[in-house]
Input
Amino acid sequence: MENNTNILSALKFLDVASMTRAEWIAVGMALKTEGYPCSIWDDWSRNDRRYHPGECEKKWNSFHGSGNPVKGGSIVQMAKERGWTPFGGENGCMGWDDTIEYDGDPAFTGFSQEPWDQAQDLIAYLETLFLPDEKVGYVTNDVWQDADGRWVPSKGVFDRTAAELIASLKKHPDDLGATIGDWKKDVGAWIRFNPVDGQGVKNENITRFSYALVESDTLPIPEQDILFRKLELPIAALVHSGGKSLHAIVKVDAENYEEYRKRVEFLYDFLEKNGVSIDKQNRNPSRLSRMPGVTRNGNRQYLVATNIGRKSWVDWMDFVEGVTDELPDMVSLSAYKDNPPTLPEELIEGILRRGHKMLISGSSKAGKSFLLMELCIAIAEGKKWLGFPCRKGRVLYVNLEIDPASAINRFLKIYEAQGLPIRQSENIIIWNLRGHAVPLDQLVPKLIRRVRDMKLDAIVIDPIYKVITGDENSASDMGAFCNQFDKICNETGCSTIYCHHHSKGSQGMKKAMDRASGSGVFARDPDAQLDMIELELSDDVKNNVRDGMATAWRLESSLREFPNIQPVNFWFEYPIHKVDTNGVLGEMPAQGTPQAGRLNNPRSKSAEEAAEEFRTAYDALNMNGRVTVQDMMEYMDLTDKTIYARLKKMGGEFVLEKGTIKRAGTE
Output
């Protein structure tokens, strides 16, 4: 880590409000390169009126490193240019007599030369961690040297209670050795932070699994202290080791060894993920830690603080859940009243914004893949799609179904059929995954990793049934499935566009958003849902269709960001879709509707024709001003339900009383 002793001090000196956006981003990149958590950058950034909650985290996640990364030295240099002087002068080294500036807990006095009550340090440590009758294990002069010359502690003492030690320390406040025995001045002394049974110092001799040791010797001590406090560790005692680390005795409050092991594993993993490299050899509950109150090679092993951070393990887990739930912060609307966020640009005018989701649903004959390819071309070339202008950009087409050669040739045929010169084909990236498809939750991380530096504007996934997970008809399963599209949008900043098929059966009488197969989540989750339904053509229109090969379609919408579009009628003439410009399809009904059923049926009747037929039948049957429903059924060869429906549609011209039909206004 470059100039690591000075980075946080230099950052504190820098005034974020006076920095350009480029400098602000450079600071974030440098902090990430040097292994700091995003929270440090976020806290520093809050001192600027331009600060927006969540922006730091979003930018942080977009920093992926490079061959020439921004390092911590950049922060130090920016601070120097503004008049800051590093610790210990230009070489950045700290002397033993230097004082660390820290605006946190005043108990942390760093390397100051304040008077030191050695006995009181150890008394406070014992009173904090042990009950009076609990036995304490420690090592002073019972040490030996290994083959490399390192001093190694042995079992030491493990049969004295905390009360005995405290009483002796108070009796001999100026002579620590009178209580714990003399220690080698260049080695120091150790103490076990969990009580023992007086029979030994192994894990099975531990009587209470209350504490774990957290130690990191890769970060400068001031930064260790800041991170321990920033992460609100439930620290019972924080001890300066007299070397290059702080020993944090953390409350884990475990009931037994098995629970202790799991909690320590979780603790260490959490710290690693938040930029604190941990010595994992300290995971045993019987582990020795540095004893406060003694000296080591001329340096103090002293008690920095007691009972800082969260009060207990359970309390700390509440904090951890808030840190790791990956949910954005809650913000007040007032934060935006004078500076509202900028809306993403429209990728498809009036339909879809960049970074949003769009679903196209339709039947198997609709040519959905061709339509999606046409959209890719429209975005790549900055042209219109079904009459809607598209913003020029780069698009990835994820092909899950079509043979790779066929997919490429389809794109070329569409260009040719549209009479469009191939000018921006580099803006279309094709990822052929036929035969390689995996469930979407497994595909998404791979996709995000591959597109990270491709500067895409849209990602098209065709079709989704190839990667669907869970039960298509389960709202919870499909909710989790659709969350993967959100992940793509959030991680890449791209629009995500995908297609899905209609459910079985006639679709004409359904609303557009209810036609997609499976759970209604499909249609309600995306920001834009477009549905294609086939039109029933009259015989005269069919006769004018070229070679009888074209099919007719209507595009309807359900939009979250914009007003719904006027339905668009168009033809599908392989390999492209063409908007109906002469309006011939405007009067054509959707297939599956009653209007479609009557369109080419010579026996079908208009409402007026049906009413006139009813009147004629009534007049023929009327002998005394009374005609029964049964009479009408037999005469017209219709069911009673149809007779009742005809009566209702005739708007009160006839009335029905006890099975008898009369003209309104007659006795």
